[in-house]
Records
---
Amino acid sequence: MKQRLRSIALGGALAFACSTALIGPPTVAQGQTATPTPQPELEISRVFQTDQNGDGRMDLTTIESNFAGGADRIQVFDGGEDMATSEDWATATDFENDTWVFDVGGNNRAELIIQFARVDETRVEARMFDDDDGDGMVAYHVNALGQPVITETRFPRLTVSTWSTWTRGDGGLSYNLRFAQDGLFPGEENSQELVNAMRRDGRVDAETIFADEDGDGTPEYMLNRLLAPSPESSGLHRMGVQYNSGRVHPRENAAAILWPLLGRGAADRAGSYFDSAPTIEVDWTRGRIVDAGLIGYPVEQGFHINALTYLLPDVRTVPNFENMMAYYDLDGDHDHRPELFIRHRYYEAGDRHGENVVPAANEIRYTWTDHNPNGLIWDYKLGLAGRHLITDTVKIGGFDIGIVPYERLPRWVAERTWDMATFVAREGPGYASSEGIYEWAPIEEKSYNELIQMDPRAAEQSRAAGPYLRGSISIPPAGKFSGMRPGFRGEYAFEFGIRPLLYLSPVDRRLHLQKSTGGVWQVNQSSAVRYADTNQDGWLDSWTYVEADGEGQITETRELHVLSGFLVYGDSGQLVLRKAAVKPSVYEAVVPTTGDEARALKGAVDALGKQPAAGDLRQMQQQFEGEEQRISGVQMGEFRALSGGGFRFVLDVQAQTGSEGPQLLDLRGVRPGRYVVASGTDGVFSLDPLTEASFALDFWGESEAGRMLTADASGLVRISVTNLGLHDAPNLTVRLERVSSDGVSTMLGDFKTDVLAGEPFQMAIPWQPVRSGPWTIRLWAEDATGKTVASETQEVQVRRRSVLAGPIATQLPSTETLFQLSIPLFFLAVGFGVVVALLLRSSETRRRET
């Protein structure tokens, strides 16, 4: 589980990769380091000075303190011959030319050494040396001049630099900083790709830049880059940006170990990035720098980028993976908690890490909340997938970066049409998350390994979402959305093609996604509500509540369907028909992009009043006035809309039935058994005994122009499967096979389909015969068990191809005939050529004689 976005610190940014998985309920992302060390409140017990080289001037200041939790010692060696004589450490030392040796426990071992240096009038830097060989200390000695000489390594692990001085004019820390990293921090070492790319060799492997461009003490952004070369195929994090759009002024480092950047407090981890100053954390037990940069996560107003792309100067860089993770303070309440979060996962065509969608693949996680009083618990999420190319360019730190501008991103999402969409609503306590609601991403699957254990079919279809968007497969991956985390409700739409529109249903008084084809509300581990748009008009009209026992066996089912002027309710013992006209929606809106839009949407939901409980479908029906017939001793099933309007269902009539109210459906004198009940657009019900499915198969071949199949020409085989019974046949497998005159068979079609009663299934399958003459075509259907339930075999005559069109057209021999005639035609042509040559020669001879 991703606890904190590691890119907010230099080392973590490089370790973070897109394969991070969500396992179990996510939690609020908190700061983390490889080996966090509790930071005590710093106490200085004594400061004293010595003259190391005997020149009469103090050149070593020793500070006894508890910086690592014990009787620790810091020795500061003068490097500029300017050390003042003082018992005040701040007066005696500086951060420009002194060397600081940090000795945990005062045992003459160095766990960290910092060499401060003024490079020139415009820049100072701190070169930080930590353990390199794994013995937990930094090897050094003091030479005859009284100066420390580091023998552990020639190369600092981290070099921090700033303009002119470490502080601003008002005494606060300067936020114009560059962190240059050479080699790995602990925690990054578990990535072999990083081990190969980042070695401690004197070359900068990665850099992080903080910028306060106007010098007002509020940094505008932090930018990090991987500089070490790495294979293009590796999934390394190569660039990141954190942007302080909310202009948060960081608090200074209360846990600083004298130098403002060294040390990290526990309070910083609980905030947002930019809440606190950048810090450097050291594991004093190992003598290693473990983290450097900003901590805290996320931010109330701002964004960050995490990409696998190198960020290069003078080149427009389009970040892949998380092109932007954007947070918005919709309420304007400045409570450190955003009300809107947008994650834009983006890959352009040809990106080896992406979906290879032309021209680009977008996946949006658009999550918002009505209010946020108890932490980052979100109410709604839209998952969107599309193919929109980013054309904007934003300049950050002198780099040209291809992103949708942060201020425009919500409207950019709302104004575009999308190819796939999911909608998730919190119906229970939910969970806290710094990155919105994870469930039901259209393409990405964070919990694939967990999913494959629970539902292999859903896991398989989760991998098919990308190819479906790309167009390489035509069957939607509906199985990916067959289950939901308890306490959440989800809906999906594959052929979406519209802007992200939401609506309020007056039936369940809840927010839904327009054009969703189905969905599920997982109430708890044992009960769920499933949704459907049975007539495919873009509005949900079917609610089915099911309960199951501990073995997964269904123990109770309730249904409510709202179609064609009726609300039809059924459970295990009754059918209730209520005649009422119900609008599919009482409020519609595009996904909220501003605080006003979010408040308007919430107001519309609240105006509908108390929402019915998940399983109380009968109450949902009773909300609407109208004639009602209650029939007992029956059970409804297999409800569906009719293509021409109206609906039908199967009714199981038991021995004892009763009816109250108007006789909308007349069952008087009907014997026990199973029947098909249908209601057309006129609202009149019919009742017919249910007959089992039986099938009539038919097929014929024709050219694309509608004539008989012709050899070597594009043609079609049209098939028709008709269900002669009244019982629907779901999951029928239909297969079409061709056999040539020499017995070679080839499968032309193999697919699954539902063959509904009264609605023939028809399909045209392309076929280009390679020869004329007779072909045998076999069409058959199999049920879910693999049993053949119908078959048909015909001989199809394929004619030879015409040389000319029209009534005087002659017939071109088939390929086989042409081959058989090729030899005599060849000799005939040769003979004709010889005769012509002899005649010409004879004519030339006579001319010359004349």
---
Amino acid sequence: MQKFVRLLVLMSTLFALNLVVTAQDDDIEPATIVNDEGGPVVITGDVEYTNAFFTAGVSEPVIILEDQTGFVNRDEDYLFPEESQVLGQITSDFFTSPFTYSLSLPFEPQAPLNDVDNDEEEDLGVMVFQIAYWTNTFGDGFLQERDLFGGGWSTAYTSARVSVSQETFGEYVSGVILVYAPDDQQAFPSGFGDDGMLFTEDDPLVLLPQGYTVVNMDEEVFIFDRSREVTIDLFEGEGAEADDFSDLSYTEAFDAMIEKFRNEYSFTEYKDVDWDEIEEEYRPRFEEAEEEDDPVLYGLALVEFTWEIPDGHVGSTGFNLVADAFFEATDGGLGIAIRELSDERVIVNFVLEDSPAEDAGIELGTEIVAINGTAISKAIDEAVAWSAPFSTDHVRRLQQMRYAVRFELGEEVDVTFINDDGDEETVTLETIAERDSFNFSSFSASTTGLELPVEWEYVGDYFLVDINSFFDDSRLSVLLWERMIRDAQNNGVPGIIIDMRNNGGGSGWLADQMAAYFFQEPLVTGNSFFYDEDADEFIIEEDSQDRLYLPPEDLRYNGEVAILVGPNCGSACEFFSYNMTLEDRATIVGQYPTAGLGGAVQQFFMPEGISVQLTITRGVDPDGEIHIEGIGVVPDVVVPVDEDTLGLTDAEYINDDPIIDTAVAVLDEATAIDVSELTEIGYDEEITDTIEAGERVQYLFTILEGEEVAIYIGGDLDTYLRVYDETGETLLAENDDLVGLNSGLEEILLDDDLTVIIEVGTFGDSESGEYTLYVTTGDNPLEE
């Protein structure tokens, strides 16, 4: 009977709505339908991409029927309901552009109905969809908030084209959408109207037939297609599509490139870049390369052009054209690598066996004074580092140290050093073909290229976690990351050391969301300025702030954190590290700041198969200030660069790494347990008290011979019970979880009296709150 009543209510509601819609039938004409075959059943199409980063980190690409309720309501935080996410199939090689897809439509889709006729009457409305490409990274097979970059609707790789201008960003301008009408009485726009925007009051309206209709927005009057099988290709989108100057001449391509940099490079004023001066210097070189039809001249001009811009994100693949020049200039070595110490001395930190340097008496730790008569500091400054450009002085100088001892093969080099007697000595050495010293000083010398994106191990009581990349398989990165977090929680790990020293960056979004696992509240981390072509200036969208979106509560780690940084931590690596400084969440440890690469990048194409990269956004902190570019993430705890930390003395490091040892010391101090003074407790006594994170509370208790006793801890905390001997040095028993209780020990019966220390703590010493301690000879007082 109840089900029948509900059915009557539903029927009466539908009848009332039908009356409302029927009343408008006289005013709104039915849509003109082409190919009226009852509506689409299967949609197929191509997805073409030019963006160099499109496939980066992707392991689960998906094509979905994307609910457009967010667009209809202009709700940029809208999340597609899982039940609306109809998944398609990718039917060709995803890593070859274009790839193909197929999507079978459900008989009745499950998405919100939207009344889009703006007549102030309540109608059933329609479901509106795009066909869109996404990638699944977090959680199950459906897209969630973190996969959706916080929500909204697709603006690239979708069936509808959208505006990228500041005034109308995200608005449909053309392309195809799919509409589902639950009956034949629902009105839908047949054009954009005078304001050029869809779903606004000036839209002309038509009535749609029941079921699916493909709406083509390329004409002034929309085309309504009801073909059974439909081909819908997805648009890459103006904001994602790469510029291509590859068919131009060298000079024409340079002109296009310099104009792009002049307009779109995000740090022109900050870096004081003079584009006119650069153009005046380099255009003749491109003209010469064109006249000579010389790809090497062109490549050298292109590479050295990028060196003019002090930004480590800027670069090109033009190095492929000039590799011979690089090897010729650097083939000769002396068999040494050098390093500048914190006290500004420059010493040798690598000597190749049987090298010219070793034969001349140069040893590990030898101080170098001059090269070819030039003071070593100046010689370093004047060295040409082929790994340029650089965003920060410390990275530039570290790289120049590598190149200051590289020469052409067979070149004679005068080296002045301090010998064993403490005197200056100058020797003339002839360079040999050796790269061992050069490779030793590489920022990536400790890596193999075979590392997983996330790896971890125990270092003492702590986890040492390497995040090696944000450019690897994103899904794998998250699965490994969450496994590490669970392992840390399940094992009560009190602190985590995260080694970011060999992470070249990748996905800034992934970096942000992996940092979120260490916070308990959503957090704004910053924003970005970007170039708006219509405004011809860099603007910032306040609504597009960078945010941390929280993972499930059981995946949030509350323990202490130390972050290891260095000059080989760049871009997304730096944003992760910076995020961990917010709310003093972590301590930053290192010898140097990070690389100082503070923006998003874009690549475009030049002649000879070369791609060029430039920085197109200006990353800022929550206060709108540049916080990474040219600065880097600076250590809170600076480890000195000296003979000890370079491993040139017998100084002992437990982990063979002074920076890791420093981080362990930082965590030891942060996780030091505060043990309370002893309080006596007796038989059948109950004590209610509070405990703070990082604290343990101790009680002195004497177990009497032959008297069976139990110890229970109650309350909402995840408590940990330990029992020590009277000295507090020997652990006699412990318990984390007792059935029906947080922790406890039962049936304690001894042959002799024994005085013990009962210690109350929390799991991982990470919680604060109230507990009750029971010492009883009776039943568990918490059981009913």
---
Amino acid sequence: MSEPLHLPVLALRDTVIFPGVTSPIGAGRPETLRAIQEATKGEDHLVFAVAQRENTEEISAENLHAIGTIARIGQLQRVSSGVQLLLQGESRGIALRVNQADGFLQAVVREVEELEPIDPHDAAFVGLVRELRERAIEVGQRAGFPRDVVQQVLGGTEKPGRLADLIAGYLELPHADRQILLELLSIEERLRQVLIHVQRQISVLDAQEDIKTQVQQELGDRQREMVLREQMKAIQNELGENGEGDDLGELRKEIAALELPAEARKEVDRELSRIERISQDSMEYQVLRTYLETVAELPWSHRSLEHIDLDRAERVLDEDHYGLQEVKDRILEFLAVRQLQAAKQGDTESGVEVPDHSDKTKGPILLFVGPPGVGKTSIAKSIARAMGREYVRISLGGTRDEADIRGHRRTYVGAMPGRILQGMKQAGTKNPVFLLDEVDKLGASYQGDPASGLLEVLDPAQNDSFVDHYLGVPFDLSDVLFIATANFIQSIPGPLLDRMETVEFTGYTEQEKLEIARRYLIPRQLEENALDPETLRFKDEAISEVIARYTRESGVRQLERELGKIARKVARRVASEEVESFEFAPGKIKELLGRPKIHPERAATADQTGVATGMFYTPAGGDIMFVEVTTMTGKGELVLTGQLGDVMKESARAAWSFARSHAETLGIDDALFQTLDAHIHVPAGAIPKDGPSAGVTMATALVSALAGRPARHDLAMTGEITLTGRILPIGGLKEKVLGALRAGITEIALPLENQADLEDLPDQVRDALTIYPVEDLGQLLALALRGGSLQDGRLTFQEAPPVEREQLPSGLSH
């Protein structure tokens, strides 16, 4: 009996190593790596390779089989996950004892002696060995190895026990069966068990051959069926049936009836010929059929009848929307052009389709820009109704993939047309009104820029040959009236904006909101809440107070929500029989809506030194703001607060520099700029503010504080200033003036170049205002500061400030 060996334990998961077999092993567990390191320290490089009972990450002596293989480590290569090594099985071994060593398991192992056959020359035993060898050669051949190679491998092993181990090492067996074979010490019994597994492997291979034969026969039958179908089509053509009864016949008729361009006809005919050669069960057949059905559903030539009647169109637009005169004028201009084109072609009757050859004119691409809730989306639907066209709307908000616009190529699984062609299919006509909603909310990503995909769609010079990736052929979009909507024009890429005609939507005045509420919002809310005008009556004074004290917006969405809340509360009272009817008057507002939600600025009640009234614009509408300036002992520094942006800070510094450079003219002691600090503050400090239009307000408040002269409280102003005192034009004038009027201010100073913008104001607003156009700060200060006047173009003041000394800010003296 051999001497026991002290060997590191190499725990194997779902692997059994047989003596005489070389197997590649990957190792990565820390205990296994330490065991391999310990084994490589010796000269023999021996380990005890034993399988785990259960496939667990943790290595323990209780989880190891008793019998394993004494193996020698051959090649060793380090990889990122651990090591790769070759194990050469030497002999069977049994673990007498397993101990925990320094970070790994070490076993006392004794070689196991195999049970030799009683008579190695017995005919039954010799026949068993030969049968196993022959069957193993058969398995190797059927696995794809040449017979001589398999014979050479098996021929190198003469001992029957080693032959059984070698064959078992290469068979695909479960882990438990391999361990049983390893633990079989009787050579004759091991040969029998290995032969049984070999025969099972041959049976599996026979079953695979039968399945393969059946599949090939089935495929052959399908090919035969396809040939027969082709022959049947040829017979039908000879008989003149032209494919009657074929499921593609109806689709062929639909496509044949389409008025396709030459390029599209060529592509569709090519795809039709392809689908006729393909079996209906194939994936490609379904792809091609979906494509052809999409082509058949598109409106290649069908147009809606345009009702070219200007009076009717104007009446429809006025019925659906109050105000928005510029937009209505633009649509009526377009209709007038279409009417003249139709008359030129000899078709002057209204309601008749425009002749095809007049379609060379390109449809306009309109962009409606304005704050939320002013009617951009709803007027597009009214335009379609006024023109007698179909209406299609797609929302582009959040679209990040160019394929959403131009479609996916047919090579992709689940490909479909883009949203433009899907909209055209939905419309069913070639000339719908197509609304692209929220075009400023497009977002670029790694999948492409959808705004770039719209460039061809929204270019009248190109969209007569728009190519969708899915369709693959040009489609004419030139008859479509595209209308895009956006809240902020700055968010639209320049090339896309250049292709569209911008129509500005401005906010409504309070009088316009009142009229809209009376005409549209109240009737709609009464209907939605099952009320009638006799049950719930609205007083105009109450509606006006709701507009002023409970909403702050350019549009009317929030106003409609508040009116809906009133209607619901009244509906509850009527349903519970508390009241039979209700009149919504100013005294009932707090009862139904609670305390006011909006606290707009109101005009100051008295003049103040260092305080001037400016105007600002937000997407929710215009309002006034107060710029406050105070002085204190210091070193001539300027302090700015109120969350001002960079542009606003620059305006404040420009005003400071203007005051210093014109101190003598403004009646300011030049020494003050060395001994005083000025603090400019714009209230509502939690709200970020930016823009150049507050420049004149800052300059007025600053000069007022330094000169000790009160600024007028009944005058609001706006404009950008330069270092030389010029006043430059600004934007958003209509909203700013309306905001000042709401605050109770009727006198406005504005840049001279903005005077033309006053035409946008309603007549009743212009009549209620006194406007002072100014072009330099001298004119404005003479107007805004008490005691100031212009003489020969120069600003002059009274000899002494009109306020007492003790009223001056701290540190001022003259």
---
Amino acid sequence: MEDRLAIGEGIRAPLSHASRISYSDAVHEKLRRATGMSSRTRLAWAGLAAVSLVVLGVSVGQRSRSSHPSRTLEIEMRATAGTSAQLFWAADLRFVEERSVRIPLQPGSDGFQRLRFPLPPSGIGWLRFDPTDAPAEIVIGRVRLLDSNQHLLATFDPQTFKPANQIASMTRQEAGTKVTTTPGATDPFLFLSFGTLDRPSRWDTLWLVTPTALLVVSLLAVTLIATSVVIIGVAAFRTERSAIPPGIAGASRRLSALWMAVLFLLVFSAKLLLMRENPVTVPFWDQWDGEAAILFAPYERESLDWGRMFDFHNEHRILFTRLLALDLLAVNGEWDPRLEQVVNAGIHACTAVLVAVIFWVSGARRQLDLLVFVCALTFALPFSWDSTLIGFQSAFYFLLLFSVLALWLTTRHRVGTGPWYVGWVYALCGLFTAAGGLLIPLAIAGVISLKVLDDRQELRDAFINVGACACISALGVWLAAPPLADHAFLKVRTVGDFVTSFGRDLAWPWIDFPPAAFVVWLPLAVLLAAAALRRARTTEFERLVVGLSIWVTLQSAALAYGRGVGGAMPATRYFDILSLGFVANTMALLAVLDRARASRAATRGAAAVLVGWLVVGAVGVDRLTSQSLTNLAVYRQYFAAHAANVRRYVITDDVAEFKAKQPLVDLPYPSPEHLATLLQDPDIRRILPASVRQPIHVQPQTVTNGAFVQEALDVAIPHDPLARGWLSLSDEGRRAQGRFESAPTGPCRAGGHLTFQVSGYLGWKGQYLAVKDLLTGVERAVRPSRVPEESWVEATIPCPAGPFDIVAIDATSESWFGFREPVERGRASPLVETFIGASRGLLIAALALAVLAARWS
């Protein structure tokens, strides 16, 4: 049937395909003229409006959560001395005066004083009760939780309070629980786990971080990253068939892919090698609060809400760092800093490839080998070792990744297209990585300005992009942290200090010589001057250079202001950000030399300048790396002491010895008291890393012929007083033969593997060690990677799903073996250790591939 179009009244005429297209275009053109906007423009503004509505909804939802009725904790108590009692509340064992109530005491020996402490409506994980501020005997009677109408919500047995500081004893009496402080006590207090009783309302459950909600949000994040990978892949490997023969195009794609793989492997394996040579197996410093107290413990108690995921950590809203930490905990079943380090290394290696690819694509797909060298120089070397070895530093890696993606996608692609939207989503996500995420819209605005100067037809799209920049910037300012009193001493106080610190940041890698900034940033200055003098249009490559330079400059200025007291040098954790200044100026030098090449002599001169620049840069990076590794050598001793001391405390519970340790030198946290409190939390103990976890208790049930005896000091193998082990070395020496079988134990709670330490000649004929699944009867043999002889070697096997026992058999008089109580290990942790152990081989393979790619080039 013919398509027809009504023209006037009662008249119909045939409509051809070409006519339909023309008519459709005419309608869109009329709408565009009537509204003053194209469909792409309207779609872009609609997207911005949708983002604004989402932000507004989240804001309103968070405010509405505070409308719950208040509660009161009523404690009946008498004390023989003291002037006041105080109650603190917190979600994460971080108690501060602002979240506490103090009530005057009436000391006496008869009757109870009724103490009424008002509490917030929700969000309480722990209570800290200071019953007095002097040495005293205290009797705690009835403890009740009341609502705003004085109706009973819950009652507490005083015995559920756990002694924490300056408490000598707690005993149950007829009148209540008697608490005696230590002599000379000035700050005795007790803890009460409140999270399991602080059940959220139906509305609050919508805001809880449940496993399902975490999975959905994580899948959305993975989808966003996968989308950007597809966009970049299409841009990198798309070829013009008319210009490049198919065979040559295919070879070029394969060579390009090889160079990208080389860069990823170089960066990734170099970081793995750093982890191998400097093992950090215990969470360090901010991780104990930022992960254990704020995230993991509330998540295990089902009281973690999404509002806390967006909360500040110092000046930063580290949503994506928290998401990654929770995802790795959920996948692994154990809090493993090494797993975090390896994943972070993968993120940074991908960012290196991204930086090389976008400059390669923007520069007409030329000199990929040179780009790989520059990015390997600034991403692989361990000058920023703390970002690699401290798993909590992923916020800076996310900041780099999201900023580069946002800069490229928003400025390369037309307004209203899919990649353009993805770019602005990354700009929005950058606000929730580190405080520097606020600055990416300004860099984008700089690139947009250059595009408008080159082509006035870009003006309409520029208005939309600038509007998006303004929206993201306004949101970033609204979300920014207020000045922190604890960090006020780090801010610059004079203009001279700011200039010096700013110069150090810009002079990277020559940070100890601020005037070097003029040399490091000379290529960009020459590029901008040349473009201005010639009034030449800038290329996409040059605009990308300018955008990245603006971003690094703004980051440097922010660091100089916030951390530049006394003209201080930047901390090593910021080097990954500052190193992009060297990358940007190297790209600027390439652009300048490309414009200057007019003859063979000019080309040779440009090559000489470029080689000289790279040599000077490599010397500076090597010098900076040597300085950083000298500092790391000191910390390496600290890291080993941290693991030893935390493990000793977890196994022995010797609080006095632990609190006598020195922060940083002996302990991975600035407050021994607070760290001891965190390690007493059963939810945190359950997920501790294998290096400091309490071993599974093994109780011998059957031992034949006395073959297996408990490990002792007089055996000529290394002895660990904190580890219980058994050796098939009885009075008969290695001639002893017999069977050992433990009492049933398990199931595993934290992870999917068991790690044994074994010694002797396990693996030889007649030596057998296995874990027997009591539900299925299946035995899994423990096989070390090598025969340990007179040392101890780790061997890991999957853990049975249910209860199990341990079977050991020595059936030969020619040899012996021993084993220690196993430790649970996460599901992914053995794979991580395999990667780290293979780091040297991976690095050699990456270098071999680089030689091969260079030969093919």
